Amino acid sequence: MKIVDHFIKESMCYDGSQIQPLWALDKMGIKGSSVVSWMGPMEIDPLKIIDVEDVGLEIKSDKMIHFIVEHFDCQPTNIKLCYHRQRILVMILKDELSKWGVESTRSGDDIFVGDGKLTVSIATISPTSMKIHLGVNLTSNGTPEDVETIGILETGKINESDLFKIVKKVSQSYINEIKSIETDISKTRSF
């Protein structure tokens, strides 16, 4: 399975529209499964939040790393498989941060450094694809006042010049993990 890895150099606000199916095709001409990443703010209209438990809440940040993953390899689409892949992506990020000296804990699809929430994430499906958004705070600036947050630049372990390396490593590690699973499936006998 081919998965395109694409980094957008320009800053862009994650507003929730990027989780819509075929966004990478519509905006960048990327056909097929992809991992698209960029850095920029996040501000989601509270009425357009996908997670029903979060409807009406503020979900925002002044500066984040964003990953949008889209898969077309499962028809009909499967929300459970999508959530499994979301957890794989989050665990890969946690592992990568550990290599940079950032000690963190994971609860479901959230990563914490101490008591500070570092990430936001959602998984969803459409009739044609499975989508994942993972946002990583760079700083706690602009995050909701009622949530204790932290950014990876506030850990004292990572510099701004390191961010692109981390983004590319997480994207490539995710792609390699999915390909490895496909390879394992293709060489396993069933009885």
Structure, explained:
With 191 residues, the chain is of the alpha+beta class. It has one domain: BirA Bifunctional Protein, domain 2. It is built from three helices and eight strands. The chain has helices at residues 23-28, 79-99, 163-186, and strands spanning 4-7, 34-43, 60-71, 105-107, 110-113, 116-117, 119-125, 130-137. The strands form two sheets. The protein has a five-stranded mixed β-sheet, with helices on one face. Strands 4-5-6 form a three-stranded antiparallel β-sheet, with helices on one face. Helix 1 (23-28) links the parallel strand 1 and strand 2 (34-43). The chain is globular, with a radius of gyration of 16 Å.
Q: What CATH architecture would you give?
A: 2-Layer Sandwich
Q: What is the CATH homology-level superfamily?
A: Bira Bifunctional Protein, Domain 2
Strand order within the widest beta sheet = 1-2-3-8-7
Report the average pLDDT across residues. 94
Structural class, judged by helices and strands?
A: alpha+beta
Low-confidence stretches: none
Report how far the terminal alpha carbons are from each other.
25 Å
> What percent of residues are in strands?
25-35%
Helix-residue proportion: 25-40%
* Order of H and E elements: EHEEHEEEEEH
Which assembly state applies to the chains in this document? single chain
**Count of individual helical segments:** 3
Total number of domains: 1
Silhouette: globular
Number of distinct beta strands: 8
For the largest beta-sheet, the strand count, sense and barrel status come to: 5 strands, mixed
At CATH level 3, the topology is BirA Bifunctional Protein, domain 2
